[in-house]
């Protein structure tokens, strides 16, 4: 199974999707968005640099393998890594790109997100 994310300002919602995803598979591959992809997609750099975010995700016991997510092309990952299924938060229902494998929707963890944490901590977006 494959799941991916920015994993910036790692929180319980991140841990929850990794735990639930691992519960559905034997081997969980996690894509961690590169700084460049986040900048392109969100218009700002992450708070935590890529190398630190990837080390954090690798240290989680539910995760078997970590790869850089350099683009949003999920089908390329499915083909390259022989992925049988993808897991994403159910906030993606109806908007997740089509792939040749099934998509499993994990219940979104309410009231926690990196955006909420960033705003609560009053972190400013890093200028590029």
Automatic annotation (TrEMBL):
Q: Where is the Cytidyltransferase-like domain?
A: 3-96
* GO MF entry, a single one: nucleotidyltransferase activity
- Identify the domain of life: Bacteria
Which UniProt keywords are given for this protein, alphabetically ordered? Nucleotidyltransferase, Transferase
SUPFAM superfamilies per UniProt: Nucleotidylyl transferase (SSF52374)
Task: Tell me one Pfam family matched here.
Answer: CTP_transf_like
User: Is 4Fe-4S a UniProt keyword of this protein?
Assistant: no
Protein name in UniProt: Adenylyltransferase/cytidyltransferase family protein
The organism of origin for this protein = Arenibacter arenosicollis
